[in-house]
Amino acid sequence: MTDGHLRSGVRATGPSSIARLGQTLNAMLTRLHTALTRERQFIADASHELRTPLSLLTTELELALRRPRSHDELTTALHSALAETQRLSRLAEDLLTLSRTDRQQTRPSSTVVELGPVLEAVADRFRPALQHHRRHITVEAPTGLAALAHADHLDRAIANLVDNALRHATGDIHLTATHTNGRAEIHVLDHGPGLPHDFLPHAFDRFTRPDTARTHPGSGLGLAITAALITANGGQTHLTNRPDTGADASITLPAPHDQQPHG
Q1: DSSP secondary structure string, 77-133?
Q2: Distance between CA atoms of 251 and 149, rounded to whole angstroms?
Q3: 16-103 in CATH: which number?
Q4: Is residue 84 a contact partner of residue 57, using CB atoms and an 8 Å limit?
Q5: Where are the domains of the chain?
Q6: 190-241 per-position pLDDT tens digit
């Protein structure tokens, strides 16, 4: 069956049972076509992202070999080549994470994760980098507030949001956790200029970055990984501009039964 067949579907006539079967088959073909289109786009985007660091790495090595170089020149070339190699390694790891999440057919095993310690641990990891730029990170989470999630997935998702705020915003970062309507909410608030309004609907798409971020290093996969991990855990992700200043990146997850409202 070709891609054209997937788009056109089948024309079902006859008894109602045959018509229903045709409708079911068409729905399946539509989902298959959507999945194949997404897979092809993903491969094309990944190839594009890999091409740039590979090209830069090749250029650096070719220049280093073209003529005799001084020790300082070789050191500079090797540092540049190492940076591109590390960029390739990070990109490969991000692609592998997304691939694993896409293939996962069942929801990952969840545990009761207290949010305060998780937010504090993430904040501690980013605090030195923020202090280097005279910025601060704070945490506000009630004791005992928890979510149902895979602990490693949640840590990675929050860290990606903080990393995004570190790279593309200015000022301090504030992490909060609250409980609303039987769900646990985590917010990463920054005090930057906010994000372009036309970017917000696509913020969690793969390889998507606002034009203002093109000069910053990164693959454009961090937010996509966050969305994939949180969705796999039965949650949602959102990104909005705050009314006053900066952006609000949020995660919503199921709360444990003992924190659900009763009535």
Answers
A1: HHHHHHHHHHHHHHHHHHHHHHHHHHH--SPPP-EEEEHHHHHHHHHHHHHHHHHHT
A2: 11
A3: 1.10.287.130
A4: yes
A5: 16-103, 111-259
A6: 988 888 888 888 888 877 777 555 445 556 788 988 999 999 999 999 999 9
Same fold, 16-103 and 111-259: no
Comparing CA positions, the residue from 115, 123, 126 lying closest to residue 186 is 115
Counts of helices then strands in the chain (DSSP H, E): 6, 7
Angle, nearest 10°, between helix axes 222-232 and 71-103? 30
Q: What is each CA distance from 164 to 50, 190, 221, in whole angstroms?
A: 21, 10, 10
> What is the per-residue pLDDT for 219?
61
Smallest Cα–Cα separation from 176: which of 153, 132, 145, 152?
Answer: 145
Output 36-42 pairs: Cβ under 8 A, ≥24 positions apart. Answer: 36/3, 36/6, 42/98, 42/206
Tokens of 72: 């300082």
Q: Tell me which residue of 225, 252, 222 sits closest to 237, measured CA to CA.
A: 252
Contact 57, 81 (CB under 8 A): yes
Give CATH superfamily name and number for 111-259: Histidine kinase-like ATPase, C-terminal domain (3.30.565.10)
Query: Beta partners for 189?
Result: 174, 248
Q: Tens digits of per-residue pLDDT, 236-262?
A: 999 999 988 899 999 999 999 877 654
> In angstroms, rounded to a whole number, what is the distance separating the alpha carbons of residues 141 and 144?
9
pLDDT tens track for 57-87: 888 888 888 888 888 888 888 888 888 888 7
